[in-house]
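We emphasize that the prediction below concerns an isolated chain of 310 residues; any contacts that depend on oligomerization or on bound cofactors are therefore not represented. The input was used exactly as deposited, without trimming of termini.
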Amino acid sequence: MRKTSLDCVHALAKNDQRIIFMGSDLGVGTLKGFKADMPERFFMEGISEQNVLGMAAGLALEGRIVYVNTIATFLARRAFEQIVLDLCLHDVKVRLIANGGGMVYAPLGPTHMAVEDLSALRSIPNLTILAPADAVEMARLMPLTVDHPGPVYIRLGKGYDPVVTEGHPLPAIGRAVLARQGEDILFVTTGVTLQQALLAAEELSGQGVSATILHLHTVKPFDAAAVLREAARVRAVVSIEENTILGGLGGAVAEVLAEAGLPNHPRLKRLGIPDVFPDQYGSQAGLMARYGMDAAAISAQALALLGKGA
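Result of the prediction step, given as a token string:
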């Protein structure tokens, strides 16, 4: 997914003189084609993310569109104040390409896992938050970011994630995608959790349970209308995110359901990382299973909500 996004930045920059790329210690060879083609618009600033965002904001205030790429934790944690004050307060066109959202960096432990970025960044005015499910969706979203107003945070998976969005319509920032239609339960997903929800829906269909899947590649602005429309038809709702359950996608779903007071009163379960630092080193898939975000756990939660569990 990262290579796809950076290749898109290179292609977009060839046709738009406003576009600049900035990175922080990304390694020799990253976007070497961009650097060769447009060296005056390529900056590699080392391990200084707070400074990078200050530079990016200044360039954006001068009419440039700046794409910044580094590890998600180094943006959402280390440079949080700069995102708030330099980018969002001034509402500038800086696009943050965040590598390794969620538990991608599980081999490196909790210091490198971005498990609260959706929650923290969702609270900031003017910030758009994107979390595509795969490289195909990423490639379709990237051109939309060029002239999108204000700053954008783009949360990337690990790359080589299974492609599950090829049949989807062209995305629109801020609009959810109806990935599957069902009658009994609604799964609300973002990022790579769409893949596990699709697997769970297939498993449930063999047990007589029909699942709708609403995929939110845009976490903010949140498509409340779509969530309410689909939730009004089902008995239960499950949100699934590779993020803490405190204040992220599940929090947004809970907020709109609570305020809407739907007449069918669907039950809600938020699946994600509990209020802990992930304490095991290993694989992303292993930790997703540990915290109940794999297809088997999603199916079990759905059956329990519907009163069909063991």
